Amino acid sequence: MLLHLLRTSVLLAASLAPHFAALAAGPTALPAELEQALARAKIPRDAVALLVLDAEQNSTPARLAHRAQVPMNPASVMKLATTFAALDLLGPAYAWTTPVYVDGAVQNGTLQGNVYIKGNGDPKLVLERLWLLLRRLQGLGIRHIAGDIVLDRSAFEVPPADPASFDGEPLRPYNAAPDALLINYKAVVMTFSPERASATARVQFDPPLFGVQMQASVPLGADTAAECGDYRGALKADFSDASRIRFLGSYPANCGEKVWPVAYADPRSYSLRAVQGLWLDMGGKLDGSVRYGLLPTALATSKPAFESTSAPLAEIIRDINKYSNNVMAQQVFLTLGRVLPEAAPDAAQPVGAGSFAASRAVLQRWWQQRIGESDAPVLDNGSGLSRQERISAQGLARLLQVAWRSPVMPELMASLPITGVDGTLKRAKGAALGSAHLKTGTLSNVLARAGYVDGASGRRYVLVALINHANANTEGARAVMEALVDWTARDGDARP
């Protein structure tokens, strides 16, 4: 099926070539409101790439084309390539399995042996699903494990990464590294609940991490009339010691309940601590330890005791694109290289170990066969959290037009934030709120939008806007994006 799809898509891509070759014939002069917005933002025209054209595949000239063929850093807009390729190659119903193996006999609630949990790259093995997995283990009659719980992460070959290397923010959850057994995004979720009677705020930590001291409460601020303000700063959290989380400040009394997710200070030990902490919290006993290791060959060829199955890909990409989840995007990207190597059968699972190099090869091959020979992106990790990734506005437009005619168009479009409604565009401004489905991208010195806009005439347009400039992260730059969306929703003032 996959090979047939790729052969037929080559013909489709070839049929689009004349249309994209004619983009230069589209208007290059910017609308007056865009020129004014760029001037106010102090962003020069040569730091911007813009393209607006009909979503339908036809020979209509672009409504607007400005530096459309210049490769630029797209930030998280690169997730469009990863998620559309995954939908196209794997199918919207594709799901990840996490098999659990029991090695030994169970006697009176005690397993005389080890439990093996084999990660296969599930992008959303969050706390609730980990609890259900361990609950199913208890459902087998196992309350006491005389051996170890072994976590197998060999499905991905990912080099060690320093979470501070990208932008010096190691505690930001968006910097979490991918993992074949990614648990709860390697994050600790802290919930603060103020209690005026005791003048303290209770602190709940999820998941409970084994061996980590967690401060159960924090005093309320002395000024009970003060506004909430920067409650995180007021707490003066100390995450420097991986074996202890503490707060040196206070919690503002008027904040109400707040939830603060942070990346754990020692990401390598996170899964070990999370599994053991939750198992003990559920009343389980463990004589050995939770450790990393490989599933024995004898067990690998046998049927697991049970499997935890993820939500389908169509749901997974909603989290990726609506909220720009970097580590989930990288999990999907790595999955492409894992289940679709050069000689792999059609989307079989599992096939081998996933790597960034293998995934780049799969996506580049798919691009040539599905999108076309030109405008191929420069890929790194598939999430856009990169200084190396590049793509042109024309390349993104090619992808979006092919996606528009694809059977998986509804799934891709439903995953994109809606202006002024949800996701990363919930707080968007402008006159065209609710009229556009756009993926957003933001890095230091980078701002991007790409997706679909409904025009007042009933026509639908592809819109791509990329800004690479020192002022890209300002309110003025966002105003440029809003002006472009509004202009497009007015059908480009009925031109050309």
Describe the protein's architecture and organization.
The protein has two domains: 276 residues, DD-peptidase/beta-lactamase superfamily (Beta-lactamase); 215 residues, 3-Layer(bba) Sandwich (D-tyrosyl-trna(Tyr) Deacylase, Chain: A), CATH 3.50.80.20. It is 31% helix and 21% strand. It contains 14 helices and 19 strands. β3 and β4 form a beta hairpin. α1 crosses α10, α3 runs antiparallel to α8 and α9 crosses α10. It is globular.
- Specify the CATH homologous superfamily of the largest domain: DD-peptidase/beta-lactamase superfamily
Task: Assign an overall shape.
Answer: globular
Q: Helical percent range?
A: 25-40%
State the end-to-end distance.
Answer: 41 Å
Number of structural domains: 2
Q: Note the total helix count.
A: 14
The CATH architecture assignment of the largest domain turns out to be: 3-Layer(aba) Sandwich
Mean pLDDT: 91
